[in-house]
Amino acid sequence: MSRIAVLIGERFEDSEYTEPVKAFRAAGHEVVHLGLKKGSTVTGKREGTKVRIERAVAAADPGDYDALLIPGGYSPDHLRAYDGPVEFVRAFMESEKPVFAICHGPQLLITAQVIEGRRVTGWRSIVQDLKNARAEFVDAEVVVDENLVTSRRPSDLPAFIEASLKMMGVMVGQSA
Amino acid sequence: MSRIAVLIGERFEDSEYTEPVKAFRAAGHEVVHLGLKKGSTVTGKREGTKVRIERAVAAADPGDYDALLIPGGYSPDHLRAYDGPVEFVRAFMESEKPVFAICHGPQLLITAQVIEGRRVTGWRSIVQDLKNARAEFVDAEVVVDENLVTSRRPSDLPAFIEASLKMMGVMVGQSA
Measured between CB atoms, which of B78, B123, B129 is closest to A132? Predict the structure, then answer.
């Protein structure tokens, strides 16, 4: 089973955290919450879901995790103002391990400068940013490009979760 | 005196609306609130400031206004998901009339595709987006490039307001 880093900050989109995490745990995967400050609590923008940060992302080793989940909402905008989250995302993408980003999640990929030439989707407000980062934007409920799974919005969650679980199954199978 | 369009949506950064508008009115300028829906009320993210939208931006004529103010916060991210605000900003920039954008405000300029080759600043989370849009990013409290005035954050407001008022004085003087 995989150990999944969830990179999360203030005012995340609740369902883009709760639903994948529920499905990942149900499949037997372990989830670890990374954020700006260990021991702090971040809150969802819509339903007020509380998440306790277990480890500061600046002190986390990407090598300790098998996959990375980046929920959307305003969380990615908060996180990408700091070096720690951006460097973690960059290292993770360079390791070619699975990365799952939804809604505003790809904003972190832009700041980390890791999506040039990659096929991605994301929330409609960031489409021009994705194109300017020289990613290939695709308007689909889920886009899978090698290690990267992206979706646009909460209504895409079933396809996003299915593709993410499938990728971890494949990756675990490959490395076993 | 100038008639200033304020393009504003949900969860704007309160001070980036209240302080420029107070200064503009004190200098004798008129302010008109444009947003997604006429008659709706939008709310500031920090202090809960309420602003009533006087005119739908999709129905507004850029020719009716002498200058454009774009406050930051999450407002620009909300607005740029729709064609009306993006087209208004594009038309306004093409008219070469004064545009004042602070914090996340330049996100609307990115989606409108009007900042290639322009000298700008903005909130640190959007720096890579500005560079990817081929703008020249400058880390300064205020950047003035022809008709465009940009600043980074609330603490830059005094310089932002001073440069904006000065530009309107110059522009009004030129057209008089």
Answer: B129
